[in-house]
Amino acid sequence: MIKFFRNIRKNLLNEGKTTKYTKYAIGEIILVVIGILIALQINNWNEARKEQNLELALLEEMQENLKADIVDMQDNVGYHENSIESANIILSAFKNNISENDSLYKHFGKVTLAPKFLVTMNAYNSMNKEGMKLIKNDSLRNTITSHYQRNYAYLLSWNDSEWDMLFKDQQDIYRKYFKEYNYIGEVIPENYEELSKNSYYKNYLKNRIGFNKSSIKYYKVFGIKNAKSLIAQIEEELKNRN
């Protein structure tokens, strides 16, 4: 093709048609510029398409991450509810002078249940790596950032403080008042009769109930509720983009 254009220019010069040559040269330059612009436009379109495909793929992955988080949080809520139930059973046993038994040993063990919240961050970390501007919907982008940097950050901070408290309780209470933690999750008191009258341990149980209730509230409000809302918002965005 280049040789073809070169031959046309050569013939025009040989024939002395300078004006036509000039016009032709200008036309050829315009064609080259148009070709370059078209190539750039196609390249930009391809890059935009790749970016959009990546955005949608990460949003779909984030939906799955959030669903996994919800399952984990719901399981954790269940553990906290069991802990509250066991603490109440122990307090009731103390109040009603119920004798020491294997069932109570299991409840002594369940009081300490506090699972770790394991956030699935794959999609969010990838978005941060690519740049959050990858998410074109400003409202959705702000919701995603708020959910992970505020809601989850607060929930994880609370969860960490709970673990710190439980380790402290292990030193202050369980090593002092209990003699055995066996392989089936039973915790056996050193002296059940004395423990049933111990105001320090009973206050611990009451405080544990209050802390568990707060944990459940935070899981449901900051975690599960907002995660479900974000899933719905992502679903709406994907629907509008398809």
Automatic annotation (TrEMBL):
Transmembrane segments: 21-42
Coiled-coil regions listed in the entry: 42-76
Recorded superkingdom: Bacteria
Protein name: DUF6090 family protein
Keywords: Coiled coil, Membrane, Transmembrane, Transmembrane helix
Keyword Membrane: yes
A family per Pfam: DUF6090
Record InterPro entries: DUF6090 (IPR045749)
